[in-house]
Amino acid sequence: MSAEVFFTQILNGLVSGAMYALIGAGVALIYGTQRILNFAQGEFFMLAAFGLFLLSTQVGLPLVVSAVCAVILVAAFAALVYRAAIQPLMNREGWEFSTIAVTLGIAVLLQNVAFLLWGEKYQTVPYFIDGSIAIAGIAMPLQRVLVFATCVGVIVAMTLFLKYSRLGWAIRATAQQPDAAAVVGVPVQRIRMLTFAIGCGLAAIAAVVLAPIYAVNPWIGVPHLLKGFVVVIMGGIGSFPGAILAGFVLGIVEAIGITLTSSEWRDVIAFAAVILVIWLRPAGLLGKS
Amino acid sequence: MRAPNWPLFLVAMLAIALLPLVFRNGYALHIMILALIYAIFAQAWNLVTGFGGMKTFGHQAFFGMGAYASALLSMQAGLSPWITIWIAALATSLAGVLIALPVLRIRSVPHIAIVTLAFAEIVRIIVSNLRGITRGELGLIGIPGFDALTLPVIGLVRFTPAQKLGYFYLAWLLFAVVTAGFLAARNSAHGMRVLAMRDGQDAAESLGVNIAAYKIALFFISAFIVGLIGAFYAHYIIVLTPSSVLGVDIMVLVIAMTLVGGIGTVAGPIVGAVLLVVSVELMRDLGQYRMLVYGGLIVLSVLYFPNGLASLADRVRPWRRAPERSLEQQDNQP
Amino acid sequence: MLEVTDLDVHYGSTRILWNVSLRVAPGEIAAIMGPNGSGKSTILKAIVGLVKASGGTVTLDGATLLGVPTHQMLARRVGLIMERRCLFPAMTVMENVRMGAFHPAAAAGFDENLAWVRQLFPVIDQKAGVAAGQLSGGQQQMVAIARGLMGAPRYLMMDEPFLGLSPKIVDQIAEVMAAVKARGIAVVFNEQNAHLSFSLADRGYLLESGRIVIEGSGMGMLENEKIRQVYLGVEAARAGDGHVG
Prior knowledge:
Chain A is mostly helical and 289 residues long. Chain A has one domain (3-280): ABC transporter involved in vitamin B12 uptake, BtuC. Chain A has 11 helices and 2 strands, in the order H-H-H-H-E-E-H-H-H-H-H-H-H. Chain A has helices at 3-34, 41-59, 63-86, 95-118, 142-164, 166-176, 178-183, 188-214, 221-235, 240-260, 266-280, and strands spanning 132-135, 138-141. Chain A has a two-stranded antiparallel ribbon. Chain A is globular and about 60 Å long. The two termini of chain A are 37 Å apart. In chain B, strands 1-2 form a two-stranded antiparallel ribbon. By secondary structure, chain C is α/β, with parallel strands linked by helices. Chain C is 35% helix and 25% strand. In chain C, helix 2 (93-99) runs parallel beside helix 5 (137-150). Chain C has 9 helices and 10 strands. In chain C, the strands form 2 sheets. In chain C, strands 6-7-8-3-9-10 form a 6-stranded mixed sheet, sandwiched between helices. In chain C, strands 2-1-4-5 form a 4-stranded antiparallel sheet, with helices on one face. Chains in contact: A-B, A-C, B-C. The interface between A and B is large, with 44 and 41 residues.
């Protein structure tokens, strides 16, 4: 591998790593606060991408406005889904399985509704910014730079939000000790709904910046969901910083791995790594087992 | 503990055996065969998930492995499908043991879900990528059907796409054996220990139940049954693609059936499979809505009908006992 | 006046509390004493709504508390200090303390209360940036009490505040309780040790198998014949063991 190819792959790995980190962070946030493994995460990703496509090309809103609207709409819809289909399960016996089953059902439902409404054809969304810049002599399309910047920016903002804002404290307190949080005045149910909406919103943000690169169809959410799971397992399920680190590691390892083997085996390696991690270090690569 | 109702079982089996007298056309037989295949598949998934309490989402891997293994063995080694289905089932059950190993170490529902799903995705991608052997998504074609048999009294039985009666009775036989096995095991000492394990691993362990051995055994048996029925499916349907036998859709179908019928009961998966296969086929014109219906049914049954239709029978017949709950579970109320 | 009348609680089909009645006046300390598993904690949790009552009433100055969501209890100035394991383990000590004043009702006295708890518990400043989960048991109990006080309650429930602590720390926390009372905050706490319970309390209750069997003034409880024989007699024989949880 020449130095230039290697460096290009590192750059590509950083971009997809940022994306994996953001998607994984959403999964980890929801799992970390309420032990829900959200199988519908990928479909909120897909809906946001379609939202961007429809608002920008069909309604004719400016791209950036469409993107913001799509994210807000998806987060609001996620809150609704939580209230209607997940919250009623949380006090029942066996909720760990029933929340997985219900989100799986919702995922299948949303995929097929999207298929019936908008068809299977790949829809394209224009780039937010055209052109490219040279980084150390390697040309990077600006859209990819935007993906990286957005994902990193959102992750940083999210970390600061959790650490310093009143709402962030409420989310962390609810995650760690829901009864104690209620006693000090945190409306636990509402915070959980909000956390679910934010977690899905993170997927939606990833979706809108990626849509111009990958195009849009009803099934695009599935691989992202699986990648999100890979990332949260590697990082220690429910750990927000763990998911972020694992996202970048996965992105770079994959990018370099592709140049060594062929790309069709990429996911096999990722999934096998997940099984090994769960087998040998169930608390994640960084966690204490 | 209620003993299994064997007379009812025999009557039901006889009734199913007589169905082809009423529905004789090939299409009706095809639906009935599919219903039996899914009824077996759902029962085997329910064994691990409903009875064993290990919530797996990767049983489509066993179905596809059984199907591809038997198909490839019969095509490449020239063995009779009558032999290859058993080899395939055995190989699949070994894969089941393999995936049981990481599951042994973890109790967390999400971890088990992800391990099993990741395993199934690995199998699907491998089968898709080994195009030299499986032809990938182009599909494996030319899979032989079962060799014709000459049976006493009945005479020659053929297994071809045009003659489905043999397939039907073979599926019926498998279904009868599997169901009888579950009915008997449900009330045996082993069955009790499995339920005790599901309801409280620590308590069961302290009573001397060998948790690891039971978990491995459940995966072994379940994977064997699913592999066998997958192999049967291959020699019945004759064309295989990775997405048709290894996709997550298959798992969604089986989950929907089991939840609609009632998870953790013997009758539930059977009722669910028959109901869903038949009703979805009746709405054949709505074929594109099929997955929509399954997704919706999962959501509705989890939310509003968590014990499935099998619990309805208990409501209609109030003198029947509610599903047994162990002491451990009652003690663990908040 | 916080009054509990004929409170019943069921967990599933198991009954935990039977017609429990008790009251505490402003600025008083009430102790619920009872053996392990008698349902002491359940009373406190039912008062703040963490456990659902199946019968009876809970009123504060005549207004009902049953049905008020737990997160609105501080609006009624009713606080609960749960067992110390209920700190937010991954948040720092200072975050835990400040989190105690999350409810808007606690905002007014925030600075004053923070200064007070820092003075009561020097550990807050010593370990301000340490994750609460890393502290020793006694330190955690102090942070838990500080967090509870930050909610500016007028009625403070304390669930097993002395459980598993060394005699020295037990004394410290008893002093804190007196300081809390001196501020005009009423306290209801539960405890297994009869002498500790009733020597601190203005009003005492003995709970056995979910029923209040004896009640009276703290002094009166210490002099009660049954309590002397069954609960204090046992302790006399174990004198010198120190306090064990």
